[in-house]
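Minutes, project check-in
Item: structure for the 281-residue chain
Input as provided by the requester:
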Amino acid sequence: MAYSYRTLTDTLSRGGIDEPSLEASLLLERFVGISHAILMTERDRLFDSPELEAAITRRFSREPLQYILGEWEFMGCPFTVSPDCLIPRPDTEILVETAIRTLHRNAHVVDLCTGSGCIAVSTLVHRPDVTADALELYPKTLALATENATRNGVSDRFTPIRADLLDGGVSALTPLAPYDAILSNPPYIPTAVVAGLSPEVHREPVAALDGGEDGLTFYRAILKDYAPMVKPGGYILLEMGYDQADALRELAAEYLPYATLEILRDLGGNDRVTMITLPDA
């Protein structure tokens, strides 16, 4: 079946896709090789491509667009993505922008639960003086992060570490510490909530979403076991759910009572990142 930009937009809209015009543009660019500029001036031009037809079928099965395209942009950088990693999201850019702005010169950081590597890699791209270690449990996911470091030209400052944050990660990182900062977007959705997420999100790895019964399992481990690896005056940047600020304050008070805490909001006005600064020596 042949599609134009206009008819594909209508087809996606009828199929319940939230941003049909954007997705139509991206699918046509990717699978028929037409630029966005030309597409906008030839909205009724028909394109017939088996690859496009297959991509549309996959999208109607609620496979995320990002996996179908095979890549996604984050902080102006291209990232290869697959079902082995969580899809990079704009909300996470708040964390990275804060790191880029506040890291000391020649800082050494660690990205816990690195996934696609989007946090560590984009930080390195924008801060060529910084080095990063990236911890990830799953081999295929870590390989993807390493590929993205190479793709973005920062592999010489990116060290992949395969280890389980909840079991053995501390011993794996201890020889590489201390760190100027910990950066992390850990799993933080309560187990009972995961089942109610959208069909697209259910195609992402559940291990990157499920934060345990109360959503705080990984935060407890980071603040209890990994915070001692941070230099005096350093900090911890954690992405969190919109309703988890009070819980993070309580955990920080329990494990790091002398630290200061700041909550940063995303573009939608929701609490999104916790910044915990450790006291100077």
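Outcome recorded: The mean pLDDT is 96.
No further action items on this chain.
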